[in-house]
Amino acid sequence: MAKDPHEQVTKDLPIKRRGRPSLGDAPMTPAEKQKAYRDRQSLKKSNVTDCRHNHIEQINDYANALISMGDLLNKCQSDLAACTRELSLTLDERTKAFKAIQVLTDRLSAAGLSTEYRS
Q: Which of 32, 61, 69, 88 is placed for a possible disulfide with 28 were both Cys, Cβ 3.0 to 4.6 Å?
């Protein structure tokens, strides 16, 4: 049955096709599907490998940072030991100076002189 070219009111009926709709103009062949699957699997595997490689690099970076922190800790400990020795020597000198002042103050008192040396 032919359609009248001057007919504008009646709409065409949609053609319904049975079965699963196609995936475009050219559906994939089984070989193409298999290749796409293998490509997806290889991408997953390479992502896992890259992820492991990145984790290994991060662990190495952390290990190097820990080693450098250990070196810094050793340096700080040696600096602390040097400062402790210097403080001990300074305290000894201060104690000797106070003893010397006490001896001089006692001698001035015994001689009957003023012990006020600050004025």
A: 32
